[in-house]
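Q: Protein A?
A:
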Amino acid sequence: MVNTWVAATVVAVIAGVVGFFVVLRGSAFPAHAIPNGAFAGAAAANVFGFNPLLGLGGCALLAALGIGALGRRGRQDVATALALVVMLAVGALFLSQSQEYEPQIYSLLFGEVLGVSTLELVPVAVLGAVCIAATIALYRPLMLSSLVPEVGEARGISAHRLEMAFLVILALATAMTVPVVGALLIFSLMIGPPAAARSFTDRPLPAMLLSVAIALLTVWLAIAISYLSNWPIGFFVGAFAALSYGTGRVWAALRRSRGAIPLTAATSTR
């Protein structure tokens, strides 16, 4: 359980930070496709008997570079969909050659957060630190490119190079988190809490910190309630991520309605 709490905390921090830019840049589709690339790499590692982290990282990186390269001269959504289809096909092929078909599918899709060993904590922490450092180094260019791309281009920021760099960060985050929470659940953590945070505040840095806080609360509550109820952690992670987003949308709607009341009143008195 201690390993579970530590690993889930690291994953939540990374998901909150990287997911903030995923939502800000409208990169939800790549954030869904790249974990499936990692899924195929882990399946290959299981068949050929090498380190699963190498398979995860290698295939996630290939998926990220493929999406970036193909999307440069065409529509990125088409390139992302193509990468997703290819990686799912490759993953299905490798899983069909595995002797542990059903358990392997479950662990790759939904993770094994309760089965994290002490030896696995070190690479998770190292990759997490690399992702955080890279995001901090690219924070200002990413903000300019995401919010005002014209200003970024005027300041010499290459949109394509920055997109490639961000996709590589996303691939590293995926390689680190898929063994813990799975290919499907990392998508919920990278989208739900950051989208909720953006509904609560428009300021970038507070929104990023709030995204991390919501992601942490999501995984901590999921672990605690799963332990007490014996229900799968994945259910609670997905449910709480969706609930946080719904709460954020309600808050944003209430804030807009409160701001509209004085304007309506002022108009009626003129």
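Q: Protein B?
A:
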Amino acid sequence: MAETDKEDLQLMSRVAARDGVAFTRLFELHAPVALGLLSRILARRMEAEEVLQEVFLQVWTQADRYDADRSTPRGWILMLARSRALDRLRRRDASRRREEVVGGEQADTVPPVGTERIEGAERQHQVYSALKALSAEQRRCIELAFFEGLTHTQIAERLEAPLGTVKSRILLGMNKLRQALSAQL
């Protein structure tokens, strides 16, 4: 087990015991990656920051539910972030459809400014580079799952591929991404 994994597990245990210092350290370690994922999914920096706060509030209140046998702390945090971002996208889409019915307009997206833009671009470059290293099939399955919010079954239907194949592509691709991104951080 890597030293960072050991530290993460210790931090999660301490956060479950309501250790604020451990929570701060966990946030420092994982918030940048989670924010990068949220920014990519939501395409709105302020909204991504709001969701990031919600994610870490959930980490604080539900740290005792974390299961080390199912994922790493980073994996758990990113899963929470992805789920909340997709929920936010669904609400945004539903709201936009309601506005369209009554003649409203969708608000324009405001890009990040200053150093935030540079940091965001660097994170995006790292993720894009890691995605490019995947096979086309793995990349497409992961994009459909994580960026469009499709279930494995929906991906299998869209790609006209067996469900088991889709699951394998996602699992293998995620493992490759995890290795590539952890080497860059």
